[in-house]
Design a protein that fits this description.
Number of domains: 2
Distance between the termini: 62 Å
CATH class of the largest domain: Alpha Beta
CATH superfamily of the largest domain: P-loop containing nucleotide triphosphate hydrolases
Helix content: 40-55%
Structural class: alpha/beta
Number of helices: 13
CATH architecture of the largest domain: 3-Layer(aba) Sandwich
Radius of gyration: 21 Å
Order of helices and strands: HHHHHEHEEHEHHEHEHHEEEHEEEE
Number of strands: 13
Strand content: 15-25%
Oligomer: single chain
């Protein structure tokens, strides 16, 4: 057996020259990417049989010694998490000190509630040093609704006293025109990271808009949810493997059967709910303010805070 450092995916049993080339073109160019893919994916991209696909994946998993970890090991890994602040102490406190790397954070709300504004603010603040509440890295902005505005980035950068030109250079923007295009762009983010672009935040604005348009009616609901689930798993894999924060915005719908309380509900159902570690509901408040309500978190209590959007970003009311 070759040394660990020399062993590559091309040395796995069942991976010949042709299969290796197909895997590489599809982005499966290391042991971890092969170990975490499904046999069905392997069959589709490499053109191998189901038995061979399972053999390749199992060999990769054994080589990586993928098994159980102790809680102590996971706690040490959690120490590598970076929290990207928003500028509002109340909002940061609500989400545990800022938006975490290594997980998906979702903000949903009606139009004008501040979802895209928060995306622009995070695009600037992510580039700030860690000791100043940033992550010291670059940003990928997947724009599904044509909401990205470089002028707004420039305004926030100047408000925070950072170079607007350099800030814009460190943001890679991809305009997605349908759900398949959006999924493809998300998969290509991994290539950017491998090429040396120091991504620390991926923004998808909006996560569900294209899926909502491409799949209409109850007859296509199962297909829509399946593709949406696959899309979110791609984002989660990148977040986990490269310690990247993922911020997604989500649209809402009105529930006509709600007679008491707020009738708005996020699109995507349980698929989006289960794949998002932190979920925040944004709504308009009094006198131009906004209200954020923490709906779901693995370790934080539900809460609510008010904030306002200024030229410097988010500020406490």
């Amino acid at each position: 057996m070759k040394d660990e450092k020399e062993f590559s995916f091309k040395d796995l049993p069942g991976v010949g020259a042709a299969t290796a080339e197909k895997l590489e073109l599809a982005g499966y160019d290391n042991l971890m990417s092969i170990a975490t893919c499904s046999p069905a994916e392997m069959v589709e991209v490499a053109g191998v049989t189901d038995v061979t696909a399972k053999k390749i994946i199992n060999a990769a998993r054994k080589k990586l010694d993928m098994g159980f970890e102790s809680g102590e090991d996971l706690l040490k890994r959690r120490e590598q998490v970076v929290r990207i602040t928003t500028g509002s102490k109340a909002f940061d406190s609500l989400v545990g000190g800022g938006f975490e790397t290594g997980s998906i954070s979702e903000c949903f709300g009606e139009f004008g509630s501040g979802k895209s504004q928060l995306a622009h603010i995070l695009s600037v603040r992510t580039q700030m040093p860690v000791d100043k509440g940033g992550a010291g890295g670059a940003v990928v902005f997947i724009d599904g609704e044509g909401t990205f505005r470089p002028e707004r980035i420039k305004q926030f950068a100047e408000g925070l006293g950072v170079d607007p030109v350099e800030t814009l250079k460190n943001i890679k923007v991809a305009r997605a025109f349908n759900s398949d295009h959006q999924m493809l762009v998300a998969e290509k983010v991994e290539d950017l990271i491998k090429d040396g672009f120091p991504v620390k935040l991926i923004i998808v604005d909006s996560l569900t808009a294209h899926f909502r348009a491409d799949f209409s009616g109850r007859g296509q609901l199962a297909d829509r949810q399946q593709k949406l689930n696959r899309h979110m798993h791609t984002l989660m894999k990148i977040a986990t493997n490269y310690n990247v924060a993922v911020y997604v915005t989500n649209q809402v719908m009105a529930k006509p059967d709600t007679f008491f309380g707020d009738p708005t509900a996020p699109i995507g159902g349980n698929i989006v709910g289960h794949n998002s570690q932190t979920r925040v509901y944004l709504r308009k408040g009094k006198k131009g303010s906004r209200v954020a309500k923490l709906i779901d978190s693995p370790y934080l209590p539900d809460g609510e805070c008010a904030f306002k959007v200024t030229e410097k970003g988010l500020e406490d009311v």
